[in-house]
Amino acid sequence: MTQRTVELSILRYRPEEDDKPWFQTYQVPCDEDWVVLDAINYVKDHLDGSLSYRWSCHMAVCGSCSMMINGDPALSCKTFIRDLPEGPVRIEPLANFPIERDLVVVMDDFMEKLQRVKPYLIRSTEKPLEEGQHLQSPAELKKFKQYTLCINCACCYSACPQYALIPEFIGPAALTLAHRYNQDSRDQGRDEREDVVASNEGIWDCSFAGACSDVCPKHVDPASAVQQMKIASTVDWFMRRLGLGGGKS
Amino acid sequence: MSRKPYVREISHTTWYLARRRDLLHMAQEVTSLFIGIYTIMLLWGVKALSEGPGAYQVFLDALGSPLVIAFNWITFVIMLYHSISWFSVTPKAMPVQIGEEFLPGGIIAAGHYIAWVVVSAVIYYLAGGFNG
Amino acid sequence: METIKTDVAIIGAGGAGLRAAIAVAESAPDLKVALISKVYPMRSHTVAAEGGAAGVIKQGDSLEDHFNDTVAGGDWLCDQDAVDLFIRQAPVELTQLEHWGCPWSREKNGHVAVRPFGGMKNERTWFAADKSGFHILHTLFQTSLKYPSIERYDEFYCTDLIVADGVCQGVSAIEMRTGLMQLFQARSVIIAAGGAGWMFPFTTNGAIKTADGMAMAYRAGVPLKDMEFVQYHPTGLPGTGILLTEGCRGEGGILVNKDGYRYLQDYDLGPPDPWPRNKAMELGPRDRLSQAFWHEQKKGRTVGSRWGDVVYLDMRHLGEKKINEKLPLVRDLAASYVGADPVHELVPVRPVVHYMMGGIHTNIDAATPMPGLYAAGECACVSINGANRLGSNSLTELLVFGKRAGEHAVEHARSAAQPSESEIRQKGEEARKRVTDLFLREDGGENITTIRKEMNETMESGAGIYRAEDSMRETCDKVLELRERFSRVHLEDKSNVFNTNMLYTMEVGSMLEAAHAVAFSAINRKESRGSHQRLDYTARDDGSFLKHSLAYYQGEVEPRMDYLDVVITRSQPGQRVYGGSAK
Questions:
Q1: What would the pLDDT profile of C32-42 be if each residue is shown by its tens digit?
Q2: What is the domain extent for residue C547?
Q3: First CA to last CA distance, chain B
Q4: Same domain, C73 and C204
């Protein structure tokens, strides 16, 4: 297997020693089929045991190893060294989040926002378990399926210029999750979510830069979800003006 | 408490210079100023019309100035750019599902172009454009 | 040390932990739940399960078939009362998930779809494309956000159970972002901390699966049951060990050797029908398929690749549409990590460590022998999986027994005696001392990476697909040596905030303890059964070993072994028959 020595330039921040982050470089002998995470693991195992970062599945599904690679948010377990340009690889913690230490960011805000959109099935009347499953056609499933695929890696928050400027913005992943449930044929909770989703911090803070969809490693396309909610919310508004009902906004 | 989370401040005036994607986005946002000014100009025209032939003639004369013509050309190009970039993302904002499958994005965008041409033709007709 | 008082403390927030938390919140909203996990719930390894969850739902299938498949699949080492409960509760729990919004794949008529799976007589595996575990985990996590009584403690690493008056009354944990030790005082404790695949070098498991929960219970005196049974999944991607679901074969994928020959027909799994036949060929059980690979390798009929020997998984005949619809993740993973698009190319695969059948000894109520302590999910051994788990039983297991653990923990919490607070604090101090000692330890010339790698190597050589006395003896000795050397490892990083050097070191400590139980249980089981295949004792020996192994922690020395009869209700041990003559 052919090897290539790659220079990793990693942003370090150790709160007990450092006042501000700084770059540390490591020379890593990489196999041709390595991803960036493999190179970072090499550093941890062989060069510097003090480097901290999150990771687990190494198959792009747990969402923990997202970081900035050469300036863009990405999963380090799905970014192949061979696909990066020659020269040093710049690795930083996810942008737009406070740095806890090294490549570990503080996720509190993200977690709080996920919870705020009520991301669970809401029914006006629960169907008893004894009555069995809800029926849902493949077409009804497909209507929202794409929006179930978010792995909560937070790459979208890192790319979103609005979240960078307005930290109160609920942001792409959480809004997409609201849309996922709104679009589910089994759900009846859209009105309840609308209070959060269509608030000042919700969909109307989105300027449709589309960066979230550009960087999403699972092709969830959060930008589309947010625009669809804007349209639905606008339609509601006009319907109410015309006295034709429509959900609240 | 040994925690000391570090917040990377971003500049609220120059943040978009760092990445090409953000720069393009801001360019698009800024160009919408032209559309805004154009809209104000149109409203001015409507107001002038309501004030009588004299006022409207002043408006028409103003439109003939080279500066305004140049502005209108620039706005026209920007308008085209905005229309095309908007139409290209309409499949995201307005997906159409027929049966199980979603209509391909190209068809939805094409529908918008066709509607655009038709509406433009109708306006041109109403303005008497087809009468020579 | 801060004390956090709660009613039910749950260690681990994957599928089982979340299901248990919801069960507590629903059945006893007045009880506080502390859901403690070393990672955010969405990172838990349930997320990586692909194929689906088994539960009888379809016309023509029967609970009796699911029972028989599971018991025979486990080579009669399953407790049949537990299997009975499991197969009955399976459809209820899967329907419950449907009610919570799980995006199960559907039939045209709107009913939940099921797919065939290895060792299952009928189609009964509910699936959400090939991301079933991901959807189950996210559905559970998102649903858990509804309940105000569930308090999450994300990124808290539990170190020791707090046992006072012989009753489990809490757990100590390090808050990763501060480095502070916290003491959770609880009236019941549930361990749902997952498996231990990382003690092996080549595994489908995520890096977080490091035996923490098993080791914690083991050190506290609870036996680890049937630890010698380690499941190799037959189709992992070479190099990374990434799982390619059994669903690939359920949908019709075939396995071929270097001559393009469907070699499974040589191992009592034929006939090689062109269509998938349940319980035959590629839909045989995992132990038999992984063993067949080993034999092919010995015969020189595998393919040499830059990642070592492989066979091929051929899915080309399924067509692009079906692969995109049913196996989109598999396509993405194979194309990305080995550069083979299953629509057009053969995908190299090889057996890979996937699942621990063994774990913390529990009864049918998810209760361990220690009052106040419950366990569910991969870290537990009820046992419904016996000597070999059937694919798609584990996702269902964590629901059925996660819920059960929650409900029984509630019962115990309601009736538990007053907490022994002074003893709890004293035990908490002892737990803290274990960690501070690690911080204070001087450089003893040992390196944590080296120890982990040596453990990985010795586990593969001594506790792999086929085992023999000599190699197992070597492994037992090696693990003993590594445990001794581990006591001389010092921390390179002595900081408090998110110290992963400390975390990884403690994880290796847990794995070494559990690895010792694996190796020692294996060498003492002098028969071949399910996933435990010995070259020196090739036959199953029901006379001596129709029994669960129980390994008891004895400190730095080898564990003490004990044995427990298997519960047999109505299926007497027989021959496991797969292939054309399978029933």
A1: 999 999 999 99
A2: 426-554
A3: 81
A4: yes
For residue C407, being part of any structural domain is answered with: yes
Contacts of B13 in chain A (CB under 8 A): none
> Does some domain include residue C578?
no
Mean pLDDT of all residues in A213-237: 96
Q: Is A107 on the interface with C (CB under 8 A)?
A: yes
Q: What is the pLDDT of residues A20-70, one digit of tens each?
A: 999 999 999 999 999 999 999 999 999 999 999 999 999 999 999 999 999
CB of C106 less than 8 A from some CB of B: no
Measure in Å the smallest separation between the Cα of C229 and chain A Cα atoms. 23
- Rounded average pLDDT over C480-493: 96
pLDDT band at A7 (very low <50, low <70, confident <90, very high): very high
Residue C49 covered by a domain: yes
A129 touches chain C (CB under 8 A): yes
What are the DSSP E strand ranges found in B1-132?
97-98, 101-102
Task: Give the domain extent around A224.
Answer: 108-241
Check if C99 is active-site: no
Nearest Cα of chain C lies from the Cα of A199 at a distance, in angstroms, of: 21
Number of separate domains in chain A = 2
Regarding whether A60 and A114 lie in a shared domain, the answer is no
User: ipTM above 0.95?
Assistant: yes
Look up C249 and say whether it is catalytic.
yes
Residues of A in contact with B87 (CB under 8 A): none
Pairing mode of beta strands C125-126, C53-54 = antiparallel
Domains of chain B: 18-76 (1.20.1300.10)
φ/ψ of residue B53, rounded to 5: -60, -35
Q: Count of H helices and E strands in chain B?
A: 4, 2
Is residue C193 located within the same domain as residue C108? yes
Q: C12 vs A65, C394, C409, C498, CA distance in Å?
A: 19, 16, 15, 18
Q: CA-nearest residue of chain C to A53?
A: C500
- Report yes or no: A144 at the C interface, CB cutoff 8 Å: yes
Residue C560 lies in a domain: no
**Is A97 found in the same domain as A65?**
yes
List, for residues A104-144, the tens digit of each pLDDT value.
999 999 999 999 999 999 999 999 999 999 999 999 999 99
Contact A165/B at CB under 8 A = yes
Q: What is the pLDDT of residues C136-195, one digit of tens each?
A: 999 999 999 999 999 999 999 999 999 999 999 999 999 999 999 999 999 999 999 999
Which residues does chain C have within 8 Å of residue A106's beta carbon, measured at their own beta carbons?
Answer: 177
User: Is the residue at A82 inside a domain?
Assistant: yes
Inter-chain touch A165–B29, beta carbons under 8 Å: no
Cα(C423)–Cα(B57) distance, rounded to whole angstroms?
A: 96
